[in-house]
User: Fold these one by one.
Assistant:
Number 1:
Amino acid sequence: QLALNNPGLKIIYVSGEESEKQLKMRAERLDSNTSDFYIFTGTNTNTIRSISREIEPDLIIIDSVQTLYSPVIEGSPGSLSQIRETTSELMQYAKQTNTSIFLIGHITKDGAIAGPKLLEHMVDTVLQFEGDRNYMFRLLRSQKNRFGSTNELGIYEMTGAGLREVENPSELLINQTDSGLSGSAVACTVEGMRPILIEIQALVSTAVYGTPQRVTTGLDSRRLNMLLAVLEKRCGFRLGQKDVFLNIAGGVRVDDIGIDLAVIAAILSSNLDIAVPGKVAFCAEIGLSGELRAVSRTEQRIQEAEKLGFEEIILAYQAKKEAKLPSVDIKVSTFKRVEEVFKHLFG
């Protein structure tokens, strides 16, 4: 899709995994036509460089680096020595001819790039494309960038015609919110450089099998266990014999500690079976003593909540002192402890 949507560039797409017929079928499905797009189905780096010198492309896309092989050394494609050698040869060619090269690589089940760690150190930029197969959203993150910041994030929607950029992901991630149902809260998080509002869903029920279950989707389970321990020990909420299921809507995985307060609000809402007001957003970290702690980029989070029509945002009291809160129409409420937030929401 990248190659087909850049008609001003001369591009070679090297495929070691799909045939020319398969690539043609994909191009027809994407409904894009360009005369400067060349396909080569081969894996020999000497042949790839020879063809590239003849065509003189602006961009070369290799799919994938694990299928390449160099006759200079022994070893099967995908072996550590072959990956290191083929990447080195392509890097040398790119620097000599001033040609940009994209290397597509496989990842392991843990999300790490397959192959030697040296591969990440050799290249200039590492981009990771991630997403859940059960959801339409895909995230493009920069893990390494020698030419700029790694704090940028691209969010895309997978459609039948290819990927489509999502300009305002907050509206999509919270559009299923129903203010009449318990166990739902909206958090203001930051992904890369952009603030995003996400919906936290929780279900708390009595454990019927003896040992309570703790199941999370999109959130670190250790973080959930810590927040439940804080509620139990510091705040007096008895959840030790309860099953707790937590889900972040949209299939997004979040590591931002600023969603702690929204997680707790969703859990308490489900436990009491009382809905959180639909126009309230949350943004605070929870400490081990049950106190609310300020998080970074509070101003942008507040502005994002206001832009989407929220009437109130709940922050840590400390955020009011540390951050320069913008002049906004949204009500900004600050609290010091979880118990205060509980009384404010549920009386």
Note: Residues 309 and 337 are 26 Å apart (CA to CA).
Number 2:
Amino acid sequence: MGIFGVDIHPQFQAGINIEEIRREGFDFMAVKVSEGVDGTYLAAGSADFLQRGGAAGLLRLGYHYLDAGNEDAQATVFAEALSTAGVPGMLDAEALAADGQTPILTITAIRGFLASCRRLGARVPLLYLPRWYWDRLGRPSLAGLPPLWASAYVSVPPAPASAMYQSHDPAGWDSYGALGVEVLQFTDRAPVAGQLIDADHYLGTREEFAALIGRPLQRKERHDMDQLPSTMMPADPDSDPRSWSQRNYDVGFDAAGGWEGSFAFGFGAQDWAGRTVDPARGYLNLASWIMADRSLSPVDAVFTLEEGGQVIFAHNPTRSYAAPDGAVGLTLNYAAPGGAYVTEGRSG
């Protein structure tokens, strides 16, 4: 089950046959488009890779390698590259000091970079922050960050990616930092289109991956309900819901999509079996209005990192929250092993 992808670099994989990647059965690829404040990667070959990949039928992302410092300037470079290429992004957060061992990034810096990307209108639906890097950072909470693109390499000789994947350790899919793993990089030596490169696996369908990376803002009618995907089932159903793996979900309601007057929403979790200590069935961690300038405004003080969100009980959704003037969307970070729903309505 699942689909395979690759991640490539315009210098290290110079000359690779992009069309052959697709012919060999891969469905997606991530291409480096920027690093630090260096935005020359498109001209160096990434733009060609992405254009040809799209024409060949590959689902595409551009990724940015985050350096320490100048997060706003780096976000500007990345956002411009994604806009030029017309693709969503992935953040690569694994920078080390000169000793090759010590992390030089912080979770605060990563959050700041992603906040700047949002303000600039860049969509960054995935975060490559390897488990080993998270360990060296002291295992901090990653709540509120995009889902993880993780890595756990197999120890087998080069072979077709689908064959190499059969030797992967299932623990590579385990969540960490309160985030679930959506994509797993399982080798850097898969023979693809005549080169040995990184190969990745996604457990869902091509359509589900397209929704994950595109996650378009959904146009709404006067009253509507969104059924939200379930999150990973916790190993211990009776554990604190705040420790459960989370997903992000966006809703758009700009006037061009049919919204007029006031918008309001409520969030609820679907019931599921297995928990015995109480009727908790979900957790809404973060909820923010997306404003016209792409800035974020908390829906309520409770749905912030400082306050920690709200546990959601069975058949007991949140109250309704009305959007402020100038809001064009809503973004949520939630945990709901049985699935969740957002009720929406407008007046006027």
Note: The radius of gyration is 20 Å.
